Amino acid sequence: MFGYWIFKVSTALFQALVFGLLLACAALPAALGAGLMLQASMSSYDKLPQNLRTPPPAQTSYLYANDGKTLITAFYEEYRTEVKLQDIAPVMQQAIIAAEDSRFYHHGGVDVKGVVRALVANRDSGRVTQGASTLTMQYVRNVLKTDVTLTDEQRRLATVESPDRKVQEIRYALQLERKLSKKEILNRYLNIAYFGSGAYGIETASRMYFSKSAAQLTLPEAAMLAGLVQSPEVDNPINGNRKAALERRAYVLDSMARNKLISDEEAHRAKSQPLEVRQSTPPPNKCVSVAPEHGDWGFFCDYFHQWWNSQQAFGATRALRDRNLKRGGYRIVSSLDPKIQATALRESLAVYPYGNARALPLAMVQPGTGRVLAMAINRYYSLAQNPNNAPYPNTVNQLVAGDDNLAGYQAGSTFKMFTMLTALDGGRPLSTLFNAPSPLVTHWPGGGGAVCGGRYCPPNANPAWMNGPRMMWDGFGRSVNTYWVWLEEQVGADKVVAMAKKLGIQFRSSLDADLAGPRVSEWGAFTLGVSQTTPLDVANAYATVAAEGMYCPPLPVLSITDRDGRALPQGSPSCQRVVSEDVARAATDAARCPVGQQSFYGKCNGGTDDAIGSLLGRPVAGKTGTSDGESTESFAAFTPQIAGAATAVNPDNPMDAVGGGVSTAVDRAVANTMVDALKGQPVRNFQPPSAAIAGLTAPPG
After folding, report:
1. What residue intervals traverse the membrane (predicted)?
2. Helix or strand or coil: residue 142?
């Protein structure tokens, strides 16, 4: 406080000089005194720190579900909602002036009369009894104190009690008064002031203490809030200090009456009213504090947070992007659909309940936009201690979407889709025929168990059902390993891996990154899904096929508006064509076979889960996937409107065999989620591929 500085000045000569100067200024008219002090300032307004010229006080950002109403969480360093002066009750404006700077409208930033009064009072009492900081000076100090561009040490030096810093504060205050109107300064002050209990700014304080907007404050309420600014926690009724809060309220009301802002009778009536605090709790902050009734949404929230921090438009570094989210006052409507999310969680829990070491991460995506509709798993997104020191069911590991610390899981034969797309894109038709043996001896060097004479030689899982002449339709439907390894050998592993990358598959582990890079030509097993990936990546890759070759990066938002209500482009899909419509339609035609539906050319003759088609009751395509040793069981499927994928796995022990017996349950989890998601939506059919890409002379039908 300014009074503290005045009291601490120890040099008698300096104190006398200051006292004489202030007396001289006090004898002048206010405007003239301010003018002389302004002329003495060596800095212009344009030399003020940027945050003082165009200050954006930190505001809370809110993340909602796709209905724009259901709160997922908030992100904030300071819980604040900025409001305009006309949205603050006049009685609140008067109360803060009476409490902190009764001569606010009569000085030019520094109240010389107030300084003299404080100097005399503090000298006579031998201690600090009065301060002399104006609202403008307090505002300057608050801005410097909360400037996120400063280090802790810079912030300390900018606000430490010293003559030099106080002179700087005075200079800034004078310059602000020259440039800004009193109303602008008052508005900024009320939006940045701290009112205790984590409430920054008058709108947040009003809602925190009285569960109403700042525009609705009554005289007793305004006086109580104004009284908090001096000692926000000491005089705080929420902290149990009701007596101190009442005393401060009375002080403010008396000051308002003394300064003719209210009558003595109004002050008396207000003081006689009981202190009625109707406390509201602050919103959840960040993803570990997602609203308790939506605790399973934490994984989606975490994915949104990752996505935000990856967007260069929000800052030059990840740290700056995160800071902007917590200070920017954004309103973010996410893509999360509560209905689909609830179904996805129900289906995940039907396979493995909470507390099971094994998990079923499941993701749903909208084709044509990449918008993420649901991310579910039988885990709690929580930092809470787990029983018996187990790594489950509470975790904050990103088990559905993956991140830099979690590469994902093998998705098995779902990766055959990338080999099929590569072959079709390279001019090979769906009718490409190969007499599939078991095993198939390839030209690739062998490693592990599938080796014949030093060469990689994978077998088929069920030779009696899979061996023999196959085309893409039944090769995909029956998941014939040797057909797809042979086809990968024909088109080149490098091209298949490149196709997977184009559809959004990421190679997060160091081994996968190496195989997808310098050693890509050796990766003969890639088509069998040995790379680690996530349900979200697989769902979005299959959504690309559903969108007839348009790849849209996964997008967790519907819209983003800034604190001024401007819509930001980052809320819109950013899609690009990665394969032609005909290639995507051909791949879709073959993908009808695994789920028991018929291709446009009538070439499906068996599928690995042929009950899915009738369960959906509408056109659907998909693929099952089993990794070596049945350590994972996966399923991916799509209609024109939605795509989904899931993997059964033990995330903490990926080599733990989940067993083939769970495969049907995994398929049903995805299918049932799609059924609920599509209720009420029109039945849309896929488009037939051309006869040329099918490799047949007659068109379908």
Report:
1. none
2. helix
Residue 614 maps to which CATH number? Answer: 3.40.710.10
Distances (CA, A) of 103 to 134, 207, 264, 590: 8, 28, 19, 80
Query: Over the stretch 153-181, which tens digit does the pLDDT of each residue have?
Result: 766 776 677 777 778 888 889 999 998 99
- Integer CA distances (angstroms), 369 to 72, 540, 576, in order: 21, 10, 10
Residue 359 carries which side chain, given as an amino acid letter? A
d(CA 582, CA 601): 14
Is 212 a member of any domain?
A: yes
- Spatial distance between the Cα atoms of 352 and 662, rounded to a whole number of angstroms: 10
Helices (H), 102-237: 112-125, 135-145, 152-159, 163-179, 182-192, 202-210, 219-228
Q: Give me 388's structure tokens.
A: 């018996």
Q: What's the token pair of residue 550?
A: 């348009």
Whether the bond between 367 and the residue before it is cis, its omega within 30 degrees of 0, is no
Chain-centroid distance of CA 202 in Å reads 26
Asked whether residue 52 falls in the same domain as residue 197, the answer is yes
Inter-residue contact 119 to 25 (CB < 8 Å) = no
Does residue 21 have a pLDDT over 90? no
Assigned domain for 335 exists: no
Q: Once rounded to an integer, what is the mean pLDDT over residues 99-112?
A: 91
Q: pLDDT digit string (tens) for 540-559?
A: 999 999 999 999 999 999 99
CA 57 distance to own-chain centroid? 20
Neighbours of 26 (CB within 10 A): 16
> Which residues are paired to 403 by β-bridges?
406
* Cα distances (Å, whole numbers) of residue 629 to 225, 360, 410, 626, 655: 66, 18, 11, 8, 8
SS3 category, 92? helix
d(CA 608, CA 481): 13
User: What confidence tier does 16 reach under pLDDT thresholds 50, 70, 90?
Assistant: very low
Q: At what angle do helices 416-425 and 493-502 cross, to 10 degrees?
A: 100
Contacts 24+ apart (CB under 8 A), 37-40: 37/108, 37/110, 37/170, 37/174, 38/108, 38/174, 38/175, 38/178
- Into how many domains does the chain fold? 2
Return d(Cα 540, Cα 411) in angstroms, integer: 13
CATH number of the domain that 225 lies in?
1.10.3810.10
Domain end among 272, 293, 321: 272
At position 315, the amino acid (one-letter code) is G
Domain assignment of residue 145, yes or no: yes
Residue ending a domain, choose from 233, 253, 272: 272
Q: Which residue has the tokens 């206010």?
A: 30
* This prediction's pTM: 0.87
- The verdict on residue 12 lying in a domain is yes
The string of pLDDT tens digits covering residues 116-148 is 666 665 566 554 445 568 999 999 888 887 765
